[in-house]
Amino acid sequence: MNQQVTNHPLAQNATSVERKGDRELVVTRTFDAEPRIVFKAWSDPELFRKWWLPEGAPMTLLSCDMDVRTGGNYRLEFGVGGQSTEFFGKYLEVVPDERIVWTNDESDEEGAVTTVTFEEQDGKTLLSFHELYPTREALEEAMTGAAAALPTQLDQLDELLSTLSE
Amino acid sequence: MKPLWDLRWAAYCVILNHMVQYATPDLDLSFAALSDATRRGVIEQLGRADASITSLAEKFQMTLTGMKKHISVLEKAGLVSTEKVGRVRTCRLGQAGLEAEAEWIEAHRKLFEARFNALDNVILEMKQEEEDESASD
Q1: Looking at the predicted structure, is the pLDDT value of residue A163 above 70?
Q2: Whether residue B76 sits in one domain with residue B131
Q3: How far off is chain A from B83, nearest CA to CA, in Å?
Q4: B95 neighbourhood in chain A, CB within 8 Å
Q5: Residue span of the structural domain in which B133 resides
Q6: Shortest CB distance from B115 goes to which of A12, A51, A142?
Q7: CA distances from B109 to A51, A115, A137, A146, A150 (A)
Q8: What is the pLDDT of residues B69-106, one digit of tens each?
Q9: Same domain assignment for residues B87 and B117
Q10: Chain-centre distance of CA B10, in angstroms?
Q11: Is residue A166 part of a domain?
């Protein structure tokens, strides 16, 4: 068997995640391609669905509608254990090859606003992913595990727990 | 609502662990750790204060071996961490040595790292396709 490892880049760039101030989460990472390419991988639904959900996660991406332009909408439908849950919102600002800003509207409360920027650095792309929560409390709530990230599963769990604790 | 809050936190940890470690594909299985009344009681108890396995065994009126088994299930689910100091093994909520904020950040780092490694591959394919196209021109 002649095995060739071609599907992994030789050197992996580091992913940095930090909390910035009271209500912001910032993720940064460099990619070995110019912004035009990285932007396309974020804005073309067929490409986006190839990488957004980590392989082996207990969820599947059932549908992925993205109208990536200022004022456009998106809707991602995930399947979890026979049930489905949706994430949706609106693109507040789209500047091709530079930035995408969108709302996260699936929760009953005001959601976070996500900004992704693509910045050219010597032919590579420095990508920054910012999640700005409306209030400090909203970020803390997300952090301490309340419904923000995965509302449906947690509601199901509440139901399960209420039947069990009777 | 403190006990329920702790359980939601516990469930959130289970889901994040799944997201980042790709453990079992069945979400129900991960909730098995929380399906037992004693283990839910232990989570509630640890939400109030850290405790040794011995004191938990006494509180829940069971043998040390029995409590060790429950703790082991909770530990594998990433809900509880234990640390042995001298002869006493202390249990606390959450993963070893990580505070809630550090845990949240670490879970996001793992999640985005997995996403971005996959994105690297997509980008490689895109670049390859562009090269192939320009070569065939």
Answers
A1: no
A2: no
A3: 23
A4: none
A5: 98-137
A6: A51
A7: 15, 17, 22, 19, 17
A8: 999 988 877 678 899 988 899 998 766 545 567 767 77
A9: no
A10: 8
A11: no
Q: Same domain for B9 and B54?
A: yes
- Model confidence pLDDT, tens digit, residues B10-69: 555 555 555 544 333 334 445 667 778 888 888 878 877 889 999 999 999 999 999 999
Please check whether residues B24 and B87 belong to one and the same domain. Answer: yes
Taking a C-beta distance cutoff of 8 angstroms, is the pair A107, A148 a contact?
yes
Q: How big is chain A, counted in residues?
A: 166
CA gap B90, B98 in Å, rounded = 15
Number of structural domains chain B divides into: 2
- Report the complex ipTM: 0.77
Per the structure block, which two tokens stand in for B137? 């021109």
> Shortest Cα distance from B4 to chain A (angstroms)?
8
Look at chain B and count its residues. Answer: 137
Can you tell me the distance from the alpha carbon of A127 to that of A119, in angstroms, rounded to the nearest whole number?
6
DSSP B67-114: HHHHHHHHHHTTSEEEEEETTEEEEEESSTT--HHHHHHHHHHHHHHH
